[in-house]
């Protein structure tokens, strides 16, 4: 029998509501995790294929979180910014993961690292796309999903960037 007042059963309603909320959060977390895994796999496949096409060694590193930055840097090579060549792109990308632990200056260096990461992606898109590097870079910054573009470009032939004098 259901007898009693709302006050007597209030705790049961609150408990049922909380359980429904936690179930909803669990489903949402599962969906977000599944999407993150898909993006991770797409980027790993894309980087590995690009590295294989360039006959780089240890292309399997594209599946390891920090090491994939090393592979990205090896694929792109030296970066030229304002007539200055910046070598060791692979080590700069790996190093930028760890600069945030440096007190005070680390946050500034982290910001510089993020900007440099987008410059590297711009160069990658320029090497592998047909004039869509600006669009891909803007979409990467806005949507935060470079994995889709890297996966899309994985089978394209790499073009060498010719510097205009």
Please outline the helices and strands.
Elements: H1 6-53, H2 67-76, E1 79-81, E2 84-86, H3 89-95, H4 105-128, H5 133-143, H6 146-153
Antiparallel strand pairs: 1-2
Helix pairs in contact: 1-2, 1-6, 2-3, 2-4, 4-5, 4-6
Number of strands: 2
For the terminal residues, how far apart are their CA atoms?
88 Å
Classify the helix fraction into a percent range. 55-70%
Largest sheet: 2 strands, antiparallel
- Mean of the pLDDT scores? 89
Question: What structural class do the secondary elements suggest?
Answer: mainly alpha
How much of the sequence is in beta strands?
Answer: under 5%
- Return the string of H and E elements: HHEEHHHH
Number of domains: 1
Low-confidence stretches: none
Could you tell me the radius of gyration in angstroms? 23 Å
Assembly status? single chain
Structure explained in plain terms:
The protein has 165 residues and is mainly α. The protein has one domain. It is 65% helix and 4% strand. It contains six helices and two strands. It has helices at residues 6-53, 67-76, 89-95, 105-128, 133-143, 146-153, and strands at residues 79-81, 84-86. It has a two-stranded antiparallel ribbon with strand order 1-2. Helix 1 runs parallel beside helix 6 and helix 2 packs across helix 4. It is elongated, with a radius of gyration of 23 Å. The mean pLDDT is 89.
